């Protein structure tokens, strides 16, 4: 059957993203990261010079550099241009519904604690429609890594305003300029209890890769905001030039301030962007806290979670049903 | 000799309400993951499991809302757990989008709805059967679903196990359509020995890992499943997809994808149909009822029989897919089919459609908040017998 993908936007071109070759070890025949990509789904739907390719590259590089067994890694996405990430990554991957990637991932993690649960989704998906889940996952210190690709708008649906759209920026639903105050996303998740928080731009491939690796090795709720160019809709509407122009802007206007107070990380339209690793601390995860509390209250009566069903041994009953 | 250690299944006779019996049924079915958000009159199911699970190796998570609860259940199911969520009307409404994701991604799980009166906040503490059509059609798009309805706490136990079994066999979210009365009614519930309870395994895929295609069906139209983290590198999506689980946005693929989702239930309808019949042979009137309304109907049926009327009783346990084949047969044999339900005519429409004009059909409507007056059902039986 022939595959026809919808284009990411009316303006979108279906091209391989040149950014993916940044880590270039490939040959003409082989993509350097093809072990981690669903090559049978290429070409992808993302536009040329979109920042999403870089995000994927950084993610794969982080996985390669980490020692986490590959089969333990699952990728969950919501809906949007960014939401398509799960579909291109060759891990057990879940393309869920708009806004619900975090609770879906929560179910995966709690039911199967061995999994290394990673999310890649958009600013609209995670912070607008999924905002409630985001704050609660942070509060719980749920053990997962969330990569939030912030392109300042709802790109997939053609460039509407998001809770991340800077005041004064134009979007299809703010034809006279956005006037609502946007979220300062690192501050939001920090104040809700996230134990690892970083922000980079799509230009900071190396730092981003390191952060993703750290986040994946971190126990608890880790969150990375990636400021990413959307040349096709956001940049075009705001006359910001090409993807390359945006990369130049990030180069000239990013200020690295590790452990900056997230309160100061507001993003204003086309002004300096504070990037860095802002938060890294050890606190009990949801599962740690649950086990500790149960042990405290129930003592010897506490039976820790038996884990998921074992496909090899599943007779319809869980192990704990076996009588002694 | 020391007493044998007690397993998770509470074998024995108990005095339980329907909500608690449902919780025990979930345990007996091997469910060890619950995500939920409190809502009357279903909360007791979650509360009991929150209390029981840490002692038997289960895990309960109270999510931030029902959107999250159902999403977590779907994730948990793919993580390899037998998973369930519990709610009532307003929460059921919030779950609808992801019930559709569960259908589309063929994710086994159970959604319990202890129904209360609606619309909107309606009657939080009083009964209703007004979400029956929502259970069938509540999520957008075209699909088939399975829903069962219990009439007693015993059935809340037994049928919760059945819900899990059917969800595993057909890889579809199964709706357990309880109601406030059955949920809060306390009766004797007998829980059998654990190893006599029929619990069906998941349809695990056993082939080579790199050959796994999430939507390549078995002969009965249902594909086998894997667990996340076992190196199959599978992808699932709510988008229209091919056997590989890859999105294909074409009418052709939509046809293949949706028709299989529908057919795997429709073509196996006989297999999953559970109805209870009583004295339908030679009856002039057959009362068709489900849930608490079926309990109330028995009084009207007894009274009618005392008056010499030949009344049969068809109790629906499987409500979706609707037992239309049986209704069609009956419609050719009787004068009238009578359906009392705590709504203004939801399953009745299905019954009327299935009867196809071959006999009279009468609805005994009720807006909920309380059960029918059996006399109203009796009147309909007498009317139908004319
Ligand atoms: C419940 C629901 N509402 C709306 C949509 C339409 N929709 C699809 S993607 C999207 C916005 C995505 O924005 P973002 O998460 O920022 O991702 P991006 O495309 O910018 O990467 C919206 C509103 C949907 N799919 N589901
Ligand atoms: S985010 Fe923008 S540039 Fe990237 S694929 Fe979507 S529309 Fe194209
Ligand atoms: Mg966006």
Structure characterization notes:
The complex is a heterodimer of chains A (324) and B (386). Chain A is an alpha/beta fold. Chain A is built from 10 helices and 8 strands. Chain A has one domain: Thiamin diphosphate (ThDP)-binding fold, Pyr/PP domains (Rossmann fold, 3-Layer(aba) Sandwich). In chain A, helix 2 links the parallel strand 1 and strand 2. In chain A, helix 1 packs across helix 7, helix 4 crosses helix 5 and helix 5 crosses helix 6. The N terminus of chain A is likely disordered. Chain B has 2 domains: 185 residues, 3-Layer(aba) Sandwich (Rossmann fold), CATH 3.40.50.970; 110 residues, Rossmann fold (3-Layer(aba) Sandwich), CATH 3.40.50.920. In chain B, strands 2, 3, 4, 5, 6, 7, 8 and 14 form an 8-stranded mixed β-sheet that branches. In chain B, helix 1 runs parallel beside helix 6, helix 3 packs parallel to helix 4 and helix 10 crosses helix 13. The chains are: A alpha/beta (324), B alpha/beta (386). Chains A and B meet through strand 2, helix 3, helix 5 and helix 10 of A and helix 2, helix 3, helix 4 and strand 10 of B. Strand 2 of chain A pairs parallel with strand 10 of chain B. The complex binds thiamine diphosphate (TPP), iron/sulfur cluster and magnesium ion. The site of iron/sulfur cluster has 14 residues of chain A, from helix 8.
Features:
A: about 325 residues, alpha/beta, Rossmann fold, 10 helices, globular, disordered N terminus, B: about 375 residues, 2 domains, 8-stranded mixed beta sheet, about 40% helix, binds thiamine diphosphate, binds iron/sulfur cluster
Largest protein interface?
A-B, 66 and 71 residues
Amount of helix of chain A? 25-40%
Largest sheet of chain B: 8 strands, mixed
Mean pLDDT of chain B: 97
What is the strand and helix layout of this fold?
The complex is a heterodimer of chains A (324) and B (386).
Chain A: H1 52-65, E1 73-77, H2 85-88, E2 92-95, H3 101-111, E3 116-122, H4 123-129, H5 131-140, E4 144-150, H6 185-192, E5 196-201, H7 205-217, E6 221-227, H8 231-237, H9 243-253, E7 254-256, E8 273-280, H10 286-298
Parallel strand pairs in A: 1-2, 1-3, 3-4, 4-6, 5-6, 7-8
Antiparallel strand pairs in A: 5-8
Helix pairs in contact in A: 1-7, 4-5, 5-6
Chain B: E1 12-17, H1 18-28, E2 33-36, H2 43-56, E3 59-62, H3 66-78, E4 83-87, H4 89-104, E5 109-117, E6 123-127, H5 132-137, E7 146-148, H6 153-170, E8 173-179, H7 180-184, E9 186-191, E10 235-237, H8 251-266, H9 269-272, E11 275-278, E12 285-289, H10 291-306, E13 311-316, E14 318-320, H11 324-333, E15 336-340, H12 347-355, E16 360-364, H13 374-385
Parallel strand pairs in B: 2-3, 2-4, 4-5, 5-8, 7-8, 12-13, 12-15, 15-16
Antiparallel strand pairs in B: 1-9, 5-6, 7-14, 11-13
Helix pairs in contact in B: 1-2, 1-6, 3-4, 10-13, 11-12
Bound molecules: thiamine diphosphate (TPP), iron/sulfur cluster and magnesium ion.
């Amino acid at each position: 059957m022939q595959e026809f993908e919808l284009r990411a936007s009316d303006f979108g071109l279906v091209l391989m993203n040149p950014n993916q070759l940044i880590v270039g070890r490939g040959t003409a025949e082989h993509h350097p990261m093809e072990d981690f990509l669903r090559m049978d789904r290429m070409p992808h739907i993302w536009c040329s010079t979109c920042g999403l390719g870089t995000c994927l590259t950084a993610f794969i590089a982080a996985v390669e550099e980490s020692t986490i067994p590959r089969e333990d890694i699952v990728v969950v996405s919501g809906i949007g241009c960014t939401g398509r990430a799960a579909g291109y990554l060759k891990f057990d991957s879940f393309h869920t519904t708009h806004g619900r990637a975090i609770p879906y991932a929560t179910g995966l993690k709690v039911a199967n604690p061995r999994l290394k649960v990673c999310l890649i989704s958009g600013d609209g998906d995670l912070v607008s429609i999924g905002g409630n889940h985001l704050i609660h996952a942070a509060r719980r210190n749920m053990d997962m890594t969330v990569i939030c690709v912030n392109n300042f708008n709802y790109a997939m649906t053609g460039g509407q305003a998001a809770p991340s759209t800077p005041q004064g920026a134009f979007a299809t639903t703010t034809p006279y300029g956005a006037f609502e105050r946007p979220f300062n996303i690192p501050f939001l998740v920090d104040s809700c209890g996230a134990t690892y928080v970083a922000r980079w731009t799509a230009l900071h491939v190396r730092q981003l890769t390191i952060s993703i690796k750290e986040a994946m090795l971190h126990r608890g709720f880790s969150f990375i905001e990636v400021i990413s160019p959307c040349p096709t809709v956001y940049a075009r509407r705001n006359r910001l030039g090409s993807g390359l122009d945006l990369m130049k802007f990030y180069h000239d206007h990013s200020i690295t301030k590790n452990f900056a107070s997230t309160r100061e990380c507001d993003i204003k339209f086309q002004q300096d962007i504070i990037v860095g690793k802002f938060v890294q601390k050890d606190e009990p995860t949801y599962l740690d806290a649950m086990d500790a509390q149960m042990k405290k209250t129930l003592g010897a009566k506490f039976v820790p979670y038996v884990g998921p069903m074992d496909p090899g041994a599943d007779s319809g009953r869980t192990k704990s049903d076996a009588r002694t | 000799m020391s007493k044998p250690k007690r397993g998770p299944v509470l074998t024995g006779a108990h005095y339980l309400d329907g909500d608690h019996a449902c919780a025990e049924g979930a345990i007996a079915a091997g469910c060890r993951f619950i995500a939920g958000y409190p809502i009357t009159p279903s909360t007791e199911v979650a509360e009991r499991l929150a209390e029981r699970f840490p002692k038997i190796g289960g895990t309960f998570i109270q999510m931030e809302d029902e959107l999250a609860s159902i999403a977590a259940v779907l994730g948990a199911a793919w993580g390899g757990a037998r998973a369930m969520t519990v709610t009532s009307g307003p929460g059921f409404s919030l779950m609808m989008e992801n019930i559709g994701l569960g259908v589309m991604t063929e994710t086994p799980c159970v959604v319990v709805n202890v129904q209360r009166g609606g619309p909107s906040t309606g009657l939080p503490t009083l009964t209703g059967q007004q979400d029956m059509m929502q259970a069938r059609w509540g999520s957008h798009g075209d699909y088939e679903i399975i829903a069962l309805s219990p009439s007693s706490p015993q059935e809340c136990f037994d049928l919760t196990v059945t819900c899990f079994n059917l969800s595993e066999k057909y890889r579809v979210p199964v709706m357990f359509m309880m109601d406030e009365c059955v949920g809060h009614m306390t009766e004797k519930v007998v829980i059998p020995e654990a190893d006599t309870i029929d619990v069906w395994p998941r349809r695990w895929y056993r082939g080579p890992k790199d050959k796994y295609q999430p939507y390549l069906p078995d002969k009965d139209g249902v594909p086998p499943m894997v667990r996340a983290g076992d190196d199959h590198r599978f992808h699932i999506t709510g988008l229209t997809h091919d056997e590989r689980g890859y999105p294909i946005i074409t009418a052709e693929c939509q046809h293949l994808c949706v028709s299989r989702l529908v057919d795997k239930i429709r073509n196996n309808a006989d297999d999953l149909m559970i109805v209870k019949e009583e004295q339908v042979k030679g009856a002039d009137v057959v009362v068709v009822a489900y849930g608490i309304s079926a309990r109330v109907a028995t009084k009207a049926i007894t009274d009618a029989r005392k008056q010499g009327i030949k009344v049969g009783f068809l109790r629906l346990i499987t409500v979706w897919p609707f037992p239309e084949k049986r209704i069609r047969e009956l419609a050719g044999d009787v004068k009238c089919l009578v359906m009392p339900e705590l709504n203004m005519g939801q399953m009745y429409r299905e019954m009327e459609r299935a009867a196809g004009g071959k006999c009279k059909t009468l609805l005994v409507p009720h807006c909920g908040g309380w059960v029918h007056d059996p006399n109203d059902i009796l009147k309909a039986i007498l009317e139908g017998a004319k």
